[in-house]
């Protein structure tokens, strides 16, 4: 029916750059439908399994509401609800879930787990975040960039912080596919692996993107259109002391935004969330007590400034996840994406 049907999204490289671009545009189209109360039940009558071995606010909520809007029934299966991970193998779980559900979302640790599910399920599997990649986040992020700048090619997106985590990997590779210049600004020991850089450089040669990996903040943030950051310690990690010491100079501040030299109207701040920008949370109080820090990867001032787009980005998770679900598991033919 369409080139997408039946396929899994485990990593960005599973799709071609033009397919990724299509999902971004399809997400914008579905957002317009939602805003105009036009039904879009691409998954009428389907059952969707949502597996979460790690916690989630946005991804879980986006998959749940997206599935319902698309006419499907979502079923949440948390780490303590099912046998996977303790009593039952990935293969057996995949066979059973694949016989009852029309598609499966999985969030967890090892990339091999989501790949194993896809190998044995016989239905599309979507990676809702692993230690290596966060591909569904990418469709929302580049939707947000396109909404703000009207285009993607030639935009410079600077990711500052932990350059080795899932977000850095996904942004570097996806940006390079789409012609976005992604700069990773991180201390030397947190630069992306050679494998990730090779993958990004291969795409960049074709798209014309100019990726850059540097530990020099002034060089890295120059001419940025987007300053992007993420937590210093990802889910499953516990190396607080090391990260605080390494990454404190890389905190996103108003001074860093000024250092870009970019006119105000051409500069935004993004964050995949959750963010540590104050000590409101229990977690925040704990970090303040232990390390004396009241802010981590971004100051509260930047988070609440006119540059901030993290909440638009969060909403776009729902629209973009709809696009991914409808394209790969949809019952209906996907229309050519109209101008919005
Ligand atoms: N950005 C994101 O994936 O958020 P959650 O961890 O809340 O799903
Ligand atoms: N790098 C973060 C992203 C959260 C959406 C983590 O893995 O915890």
TrEMBL record:
UniProt keyword terms in alphabetical order: Cytoplasm, Transferase
Organism expressing this protein natively: Weissella oryzae (strain DSM 25784 / JCM 18191 / LMG 30913 / SG25)
Enzyme Commission number(s): 2.1.3.3
Protein's UniProt keywords contain Cytoplasm: yes
UniProt binding sites for L-ornithine: 166, 230, 234-235
Protein's gene: arcB
PROSITE patterns per record: CARBAMOYLTRANSFERASE
Sequence similarity: Belongs to the aspartate/ornithine carbamoyltransferase superfamily. OTCase family.
Domain of life: Bacteria
Classification via PANTHER family: ORNITHINE CARBAMOYLTRANSFERASE, CATABOLIC (PTHR45753:SF1), ORNITHINE CARBAMOYLTRANSFERASE, MITOCHONDRIAL (PTHR45753)
SUPFAM superfamilies xrefs: Aspartate/ornithine carbamoyltransferase
Listed name of the protein: Ornithine carbamoyltransferase
Molecular functions (GO terms): amino acid binding; ornithine carbamoyltransferase activity
């Amino acid at each position: 029916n369409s080139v997408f049907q039946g396929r899994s999204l485990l990593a960005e490289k599973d799709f071609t750059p033009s397919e990724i671009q299509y999902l971004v545009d399809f997400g914008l189209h579905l957002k317009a439908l939602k805003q105009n109360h036009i039904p879009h039940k691409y998954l009428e009558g389907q059952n969707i399994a949502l597996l979460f071995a790690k916690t989630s606010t946005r991804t879980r909520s986006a998959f749940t509401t997206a599935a319902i809007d698309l006419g499907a029934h979502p079923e949440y299966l948390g780490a303590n609800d099912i046998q996977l991970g303790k009593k039952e193998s990935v293969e057996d779980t995949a066979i059973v879930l694949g016989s009852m559900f029309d598609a499966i979302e999985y969030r967890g640790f090892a990339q091999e787990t989501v790949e194993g599910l896809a190998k044995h399920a016989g239905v599309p599997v979507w990676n809702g975040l692993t230690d290596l990649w966060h591909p569904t986040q990418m469709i929302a992020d580049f939707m947000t960039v396109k909404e703000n700048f009207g285009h993607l090619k030639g935009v410079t997106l600077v990711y500052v912080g932990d350059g080795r985590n899932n977000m850095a990997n996904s942004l570097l590779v996806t940006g390079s596919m789409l012609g976005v210049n992604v700069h990773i600004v991180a201390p030397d020991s947190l630069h992306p692996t050679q494998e990730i850089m090779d993958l990004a450089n291969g795409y960049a040669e074709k798209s014309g993107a100019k990726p850059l990996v540097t530990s020099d903040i002034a060089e890295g943030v120059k001419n940025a259109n987007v300053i992007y950051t993420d937590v210093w310690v990802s889910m499953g990690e516990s190396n607080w002391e090391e990260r605080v010491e390494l990454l404190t100079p890389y905190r996103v501040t108003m001074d860093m935004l000024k250092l870009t030299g970019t006119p105000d109207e051409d500069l935004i701040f993004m964050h995949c969330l959750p963010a540590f920008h104050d000590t409101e949370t229990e977690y925040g109080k704990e970090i303040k007590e232990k390390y004396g820090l009241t802010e981590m990867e971004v100051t509260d001032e930047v988070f609440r400034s006119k540059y901030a787009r993290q909440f638009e980005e969060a909403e776009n998770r729902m629209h973009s996840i709809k696009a991914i679900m409808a394209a790969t598991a949809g019952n209906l033919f996907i229309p050519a994406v109209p101008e919005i």
